Amino acid sequence: MCCIPQRLGQMDICKGVVSLATAAGAICLLYKAIRAGIKCQPPRCSASPICIARLAVEREQHGRDSGELRRLLNSLECKQDEYAKSMVLHSITRCVYLLESEASACTNDDITLVGSMLDDKDNSVKIQALNTLKAFSGIRKFRLKIQEHSIKVLELISTIWDSQLHIAGLRLLNNLPLPDFAHPQLRRVMPALMEILQSDYTLAQVQAARLLSNLAQKNDLLYDILNCQVHSNFLNLFQSTQPGSLLLEVLVFAERLSEGRSSPHYRAVKWHYNEQSVHEAVFGDDSRLADRLLALVIHPEEDVQIQACKVIVSLQCPQDVGVWPSCPPSHSCFSNAE
């Protein structure tokens, strides 16, 4: 019994030694980690937005090219997986926006290289390639070269149902003057554009409405738009509950259609329309567009109010009539009560 306290004391001493050793080891490891962290320089991640922005600032300060954009374009020619290609294209897009002189120094071969990515099997690569072409389209000398890809872009947005791809493709098309050789393809994809307009993704709808407004000003495409088949609830696009950005674009679209169909060039021909066409939904005898427009005159957003009034005026006064105040009432789409 007398040995028990002595042994307990020895055990306490042993535990203390072990604790001290453990603490010393932990401190040593912590010291090594801190020391390694101080000595270690962070890896150069030139593809990150922060690094690219830093390069842009350095270029402006020192008056020289960073070479970053050229390096990225060269790397795009190497064999890479889909994720790597998407990231490289994303970085190229940022470089084009940030490194103006380097982007202007690129060549049509670079545009061709980026355009070839539209044939990639992965949709994310296609989307990033569209974004990159959109960035390059801000440089005037590349627009003609980028126009060569317009047929492919129209094919993509009409055959792949992906909202992000639709947005990227339509943004690109809206930033380019579409060439006449694209008009036959535009006629073929008109139903797809109408479907996107009637989808439930606002950003894609806005871009589709913007493109259709531009196309409605083309004499050889106006009938194809007006005769395009739409859903029975097409006029829901003009409901006051829709986002203001979408309302503004569809109202511009309606104004362009109204102006186009009232032009002497268009009225010189007697056209026939499908029952479920845009023309019947917007301008037909049973159309309720007038009700929608009158409701939008008191919309909270002033831009929407003004555009709704413009559509009303365009409906009441065809373009071949002289001064608006003298427009005969027979041309009005609104009843006297309205």
Automatic annotation (TrEMBL):
One Pfam match, by short name? Arm_2
Q: One Gene Ontology cellular component annotation?
A: nucleus
Q: Which SUPFAM superfamilies match?
A: ARM repeat
Q: InterPro entries in the record, alphabetically?
A: ARM-like, ARM-rpt_dom, ARM-type_fold, Armc12
Q: Which domain of life is it from?
A: Eukaryota
Native species: Neophocaena asiaeorientalis asiaeorientalis
Transmembrane spans: none
Q: What gene, per UniProt, encodes this protein?
A: ARMC12
User: Ranges for the Armadillo repeat-containing domain?
Assistant: 67-263
Q: What is this protein called?
A: Armadillo repeat-containing protein 12 isoform X1
